[in-house]
């Protein structure tokens, strides 16, 4: 697909494979009436639908939920790419996107917990809804802190580990495999332990950034020498 002539050439191609695909798909929308916030709203609706589909706890609904989440996760990159190539960026849109990410993530894992609770004969020492809330809140905290780190120290400081365009969060695209093999319970247990541990690491990174000395600007150094 060729780029539209009014797309600024200075915009570098994204490194992530899903962002590259999202950019190609939203190119025709860059001069239209569809805004990035419109795509964010569709992402929110799809994510909430995914969460709702996990609530019954059945095998069929869990697989539907996983597919809806894949679509929602992809749309989360599409709205950002549309904002970049169209120039329709705004501070409200940035926070709206973050709020949708947070809401979808927390509600998704809580819904998983509700679905697990709905299945009889599964003994857990901690209520599955609590496990879901722990996992979802920890992941949402990671999102928020990484955004703050990026604002304070640049995108490179908040960049996740990547291999050939694949990053840590791309594991969400594998959720259909989890549900196909009926692995929602192991996923919930793993996320309730792993997400808080990873969140603790991000909290430490954020704390170190807050404590690090601010770079001396040219104006500051001149004032000190005066």
What's the Cα radius of gyration? Answer: 20 Å
CATH second-level architecture: Up-down Bundle
Total count of helical runs of at least 4 residues: 9
> How is the largest sheet built, in terms of strand order?
1-2
Structural class: mainly alpha
Spatial separation of the terminal alpha carbons? 58 Å
What kind of sheet is the major sheet?
A: 2 strands, antiparallel
CATH class annotation: Mainly Alpha
Query: Helicity, in percent?
Result: 55-70%
Strand-residue proportion: under 5%
SSE arrangement:
Blueprint: H1 17-26, H2 36-54, H3 59-86, H4 91-118, H5 128-153, H6 155-158, E1 162-163, E2 166-167, H7 175-180, H8 184-211, H9 218-225
Antiparallel strand pairs: 1-2
Helix pairs in contact: 1-3, 2-3, 2-4, 4-5, 5-8
Summarize the structure in short:
This protein is mainly alpha-helical and 226 residues long. Helix content is 69%, strand content 2%.
């Amino acid at each position: 697909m060729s780029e539209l002539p009014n797309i600024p050439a200075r915009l570098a191609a994204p490194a992530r494979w899903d962002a590259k695909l999202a950019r190609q798909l939203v190119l025709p929308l860059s001069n239209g009436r569809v805004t990035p916030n419109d795509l964010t709203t569709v992402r929110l609706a799809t994510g909430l639908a995914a969460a709702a589909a996990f609530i019954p706890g059945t095998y069929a609904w869990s697989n539907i939920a996983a597919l809806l989440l894949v679509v929602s996760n992809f749309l989360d990159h599409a709205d950002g790419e549309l904002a970049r190539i169209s120039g329709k960026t705004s501070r409200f849109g940035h926070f709206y996107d973050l709020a949708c990410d947070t809401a979808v993530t927390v509600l998704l894992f809580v819904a998983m917990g509700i679905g697990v609770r709905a299945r009889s004969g599964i003994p857990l020492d901690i209520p599955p809804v609590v496990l879901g809330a722990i996992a979802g809140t920890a992941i949402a905290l990671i999102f928020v802190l990484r955004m703050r780190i990026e604002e304070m120290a640049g995108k490179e400081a908040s960049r996740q580990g990547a291999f050939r365009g694949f990053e840590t969060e791309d594991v969400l695209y594998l959720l259909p495999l989890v549900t196909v093999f009926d692995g929602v319970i192991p996923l919930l247990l793993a996320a309730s332990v792993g997400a808080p541990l990873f969140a603790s690491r991000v909290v430490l990174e954020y704390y170190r950034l807050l404590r690090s000395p601010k770079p001396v600007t040219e104006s500051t150094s001149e004032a000190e020498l005066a």
